[in-house]
Design the sequence.
């Protein structure tokens, strides 16, 4: 059973098709999160960067970087609850 938190964006909690930091949690894909637009391995490499990116994203209205991927019934609260505890 894979650890589900490996698949969640550290910034916004969106579940990714691939683990943003690989299965070992150390090998970043450098993909872009469809929701918050963070680049894995770059904007989410440090705790402080994750928190400030998240605050900025919230301040700007929590827009989707890729609007076409936004679910019609998007549940932001449920998504935010996926953020790995060590990045809250
Ligand atoms: Zn994200």
Sequence:
């Amino acid at each position: 059973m894979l650890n589900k938190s490996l698949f969640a964006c550290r910034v916004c909690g969106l579940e990714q098709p691939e683990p943003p930091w690989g299965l070992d949690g150390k090998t970043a894909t450098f993909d872009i999160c469809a929701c918050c637009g963070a680049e894995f391995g770059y904007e989410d490499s440090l705790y402080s960067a994750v928190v400030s990116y998240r605050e900025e994203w919230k301040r700007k209205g929590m827009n989707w970087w890729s609007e076409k991927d936004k679910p019609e019934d998007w549940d932001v609260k449920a998504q935010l609850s996926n953020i790995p505890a060590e990045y809250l």
Remarks:
- Residues 34 and 68 are 9 Å apart (CA to CA).
